[in-house]
Design a protein that fits this description.
This protein has helices at 24-33, 50-60, and strands at residues 9-15, 37-43, 65-67. It is an alpha/beta fold. A three-stranded parallel sheet has the order 1-2-3, covered by helices on one side.
Length: 68
Amino acid sequence: MTRAVDVKLTLVIPCFNEARRLDPSAFSAFLAREPLASLLFVDDGSVDDTRARLTPLTQEFPALVTVL
């Protein structure tokens, strides 16, 4: 879902090997009910599937989710 947004809040979420704990559906639900929020995931060199778990979120909300 691509949309022009006026983001008022960016949550920075540090992650390191969090693939088992990340719940993309919870983040998706959060973004659906908080239209002025965005998410910035900072992956500090994970060697598990952390980035792969976040990829669907970046595809669903390209203007609202960033993974560094």
